């Protein structure tokens, strides 16, 4: 097996298969003496990507309260116009407003650290969750044969021979589509309980890996694999305390964000982090100021707020980006919900973000401006928004390899990063 097989080509996942105390003895012996040298992460830029799976209703998250058609098409679920109260949209610029459940993010918008991109998405026509999520993660809309994800290709575009095993981390049970590829990618369910497995081993399982690799690992050929586990142990997740006053929302999403903050602060060489949050498929009883969508928006915004405040000293080096596979129909349905649509909204937060603005061209909600007569039209390709973040924040120059077939230079710049 080639050196770096596990991380470079095997896509390690650190999953919740047991506690460190129950790891095989041969693993613990292999860990002895591993130092993780050269991966302190000092001064390293970090991109944190949050996927809202299920298709967020961008029109009720970032409300076009200045357009009468919004209220005409949503008699039951529209968010009231800004009036200074807690049961109305929070005005952003006189035309757009923020859902009141996202009030914790409003101060970052006011301080110009939070940017919003509206009417953003994929030009592909699919309304399938599966296909749309696949295209958003692969970065190649309409092409199902792409084998790797754009977040992995962004790491490939900036090779780092001495990179940390934790250069790319996904918090979740398995390595997501967006992080699969030739660059090293680690998935973990938590920092507190983990074991090693290889996503490509097949039926042989954990024991088979060790039968094939232990001799080379003990000679150093697989050292990066074991350094990753050793570095996790040194982070000591059970003793982590967020900054005073920072409180993450309860549940898996909040726990994952807290662990991302710990990895950033621990300087283990993190460059890209990924996790997701579900529950955005609001076909029935979506609600307006209260209800299903409001609960999801509150959890998302409180989680992002806690993460960013916890990483305050790293603000200039951190960018937090949200994305969702598509938006919802402009007109509410008969179940007081919304169906699969087209464009939605993205949020970008960071110390170097050109915030305090809703970016992108607004297409309007008049009947003749809607996509297929029913949806908010896409005016900003998601690759344009993501590409600018990769270029300006992570200093990725070769976007042609990150988004094959897409020419970002042919588009009008959004100016998302200062």
Q: Which features characterize this protein?
A:
418 residues; alpha/beta; Alkaline Phosphatase, subunit A; three-stranded antiparallel beta sheet; globular
- Write the CATH fold name: Alkaline Phosphatase, subunit A
Could you list the spans in which at least 5 consecutive residues all have pLDDT below 50? 1-42, 195-222
**Average pLDDT:** 84
Main beta sheet? 11 strands, mixed
CATH C-level: Alpha Beta
The gross shape turns out to be globular
Let me know the number of strands. 14
> Which CATH architecture would you pick?
3-Layer(aba) Sandwich
CA-CA gap between termini: 44 Å
Give a description of the structure:
The structure is a single chain. Helix content is 29%, strand content 15%. By secondary structure, the chain is an alpha/beta fold. The strands form two sheets. Strands 1, 2, 6, 7, 8, 9, 10, 11, 12, 13 and 14 form an eleven-stranded mixed beta sheet that branches. It has 13 helices and 14 strands. It has one domain: Alkaline Phosphatase, subunit A. Helix 10 (252-265) runs parallel beside helix 11 (292-310). Strand 4 (90-91) and strand 5 (97-98) form a beta hairpin.
């Amino acid at each position: 097996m080639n050196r770096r097989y596990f991380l470079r080509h095997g896509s390690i996942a650190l999953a919740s298969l047991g506690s460190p105390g129950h790891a095989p003895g041969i693993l613990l012996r292999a860990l002895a003496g591993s130092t993780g040298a050269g991966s302190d992460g000092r001064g390293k830029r970090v991109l944190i990507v949050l996927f809202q799976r299920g298709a967020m209703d961008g029109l009720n998250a970032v409300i076009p309260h200045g357009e009468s058609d919004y209220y005409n098409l949503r008699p039951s679920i529209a968010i009231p116009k800004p009036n200074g109260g807690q049961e109305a949209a929070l005005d952003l610029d006189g035309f757009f407003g923020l859902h009141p459940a996202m009030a914790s993010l409003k101060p970052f918008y006011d301080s110009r650290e939070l940017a919003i991109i509206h009417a953003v998405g994929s030009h592909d026509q699919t309304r399938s969750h599966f296909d749309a999520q696949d295209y958003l993660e692969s970065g190649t809309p309409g092409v199902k044969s792409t084998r790797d994800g754009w977040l992995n290709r962004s790491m490939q575009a900036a090779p780092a021979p001495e990179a940390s095993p934790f250069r790319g981390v996904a918090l979740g049970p398995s390595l997501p589509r967006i992080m699969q590829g030739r660059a090293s990618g680690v998935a973990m369910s938590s920092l507190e309980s983990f074991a090693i497995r290889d996503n490509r081993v097949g039926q042989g399982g954990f024991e088979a890996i060790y039968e094939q690799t232990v001799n080379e690992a003990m000679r150093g050929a697989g050292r990066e694999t074991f350094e990753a586990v050793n570095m996790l142990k040194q982070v000591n997740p059970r003793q982590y305390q967020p900054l005073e006053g920072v409180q993450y929302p309860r549940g898996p999403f909040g726990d994952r964000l807290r662990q991302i903050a710990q990895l950033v602060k621990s300087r283990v060489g993190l460059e890209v982090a990924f996790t997701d949050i579900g529950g955005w498929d609001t076909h029935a009883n979506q609600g307006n100021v209260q209800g299903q969508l409001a609960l999801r928006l509150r959890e998302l915004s409180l989680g992002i707020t806690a993460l960013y405040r916890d990483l305050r000293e790293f603000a200039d080096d951190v960018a937090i980006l949200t994305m969702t596979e598509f938006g919802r129909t402009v007109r509410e349905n008969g179940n007081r919900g919304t169906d699969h649509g087209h464009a939605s909204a993205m949020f970008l937060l960071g110390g170097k973000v050109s915030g305090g603005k809703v970016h992108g061209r607004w297409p309007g909600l008049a009947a003749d401006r809607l996509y297929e007569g029913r949806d908010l039209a896409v005016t900003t390709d998601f690759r344009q928004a993501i590409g600018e973040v990769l270029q300006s924040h992570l200093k990725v120059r070769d976007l042609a390899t990150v988004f094959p077939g897409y020419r970002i230079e042919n588009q009008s710049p959004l100016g998302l990063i200062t």
